[in-house]
């Protein structure tokens, strides 16, 4: 049983670390979200709280099992049940609100693209994170390269430049941010279709990644839920087997 409680301490440390990573990360798609969406920051703090609580409960559960302290085992069971219910509720909210979340995300990325300015140092981290996403996923814009036509700087240049992080050209492979100049005849009409950029929008890239890894994600979530249920069953069984006269038993110094 203590081995199981030790596992929960490790699990809590992983959840805690994941929450801290969301807040500290500056170079991925998570960074774009957490710097733009207050809800993701709130979620990160919730993960940190759940991780810390899971670690604490693992310690208290082990202490209660070794010393046969029923109140600690009961507290462990209750907290584990609350965590499990919270996880299920969060999953249901995400599932039933996925269209709303997608719309909010589309608005966040659209605003970022529209106001993208390589000379704006105040938004440097956020813009670099989005450049990193486009470079790594090999995508351009949220729904496609046409999203960049709404950028004020590119619009004022009559779309004769394009985001370097979107480029599919080998000559731009070493440029990770900012705008690259497009070689076009004078006074010619240019659209995003003329840019040497990836055709896939980042929304499709993110959805493809989620679909490709859906089995792993569901497997991990299911495994964690099963282990939590096992911990609840074992803790309540041990609690029932402890005689009532041992209820106030405390560890020896």
UniProtKB/TrEMBL annotation:
Keyword hit for Acyltransferase: no
Highest taxon in the source lineage: Eukaryota
UniProtKB keywords: Membrane, Transmembrane, Transmembrane helix
Transmembrane parts of this sequence: 6-24, 44-66, 72-96, 216-238
Record-level GO cellular component terms: plasma membrane
Gene3D superfamilies noted in UniProt: Tetraspanin
InterPro entries xref list: Tetraspanin/Peripherin, Tetraspanin_animals, Tetraspanin_CS, Tetraspanin_EC2_sf
Coiled coil ranges: none
Any Pfam family matching the protein: Tetraspanin
Protein name per the record: Tetraspanin
Family note: Belongs to the tetraspanin (TM4SF) family.
């Amino acid at each position: 049983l203590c081995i199981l409680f030790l596992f929960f301490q490790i699990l809590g440390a992983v959840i805690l670390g994941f929450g801290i990573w969301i807040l500290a990360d500056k170079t991925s798609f998570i960074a774009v979200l957490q710097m733009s969406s207050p809800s993701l920051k709130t979620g990160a703090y919730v993960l940190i709280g759940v991780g810390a609580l899971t670690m604490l409960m693992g310690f208290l559960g082990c202490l209660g099992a070794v010393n046969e302290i029923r109140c600690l085992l009961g507290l462990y069971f209750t907290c584990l049940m609350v965590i499990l219910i919270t996880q299920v509720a969060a999953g249901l909210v995400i599932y039933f609100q996925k269209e709303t979340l997608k719309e909010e995300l589309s608005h966040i990325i659209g605003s970022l693209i529209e106001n993208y300015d390589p000379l704006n140092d105040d938004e440097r981290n956020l813009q670099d994170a989005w450049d990193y996403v486009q470079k790594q996923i090999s995508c351009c814009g949220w729904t496609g390269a046409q999203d960049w036509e709404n950028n004020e700087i590119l619009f004022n240049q009559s779309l004769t430049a394009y985001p370097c992080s979107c480029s599919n050209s080998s000559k731009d492979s070493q440029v990770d941010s900012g705008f690259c100049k497009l070689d076009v005849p004078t006074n010619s009409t240019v659209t995003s279709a003329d840019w040497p950029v990836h055709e896939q929008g980042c929304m499709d890239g993110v959805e493809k990644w989620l679909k490709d890894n859906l089995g792993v994600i569901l497997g991990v979530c299911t495994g964690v839920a099963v282990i939590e249920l096992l911990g609840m069953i074992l803790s309540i069984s041990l609690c029932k087997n402890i005689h009532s006269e041992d209820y106030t038993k405390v560890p020896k110094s």
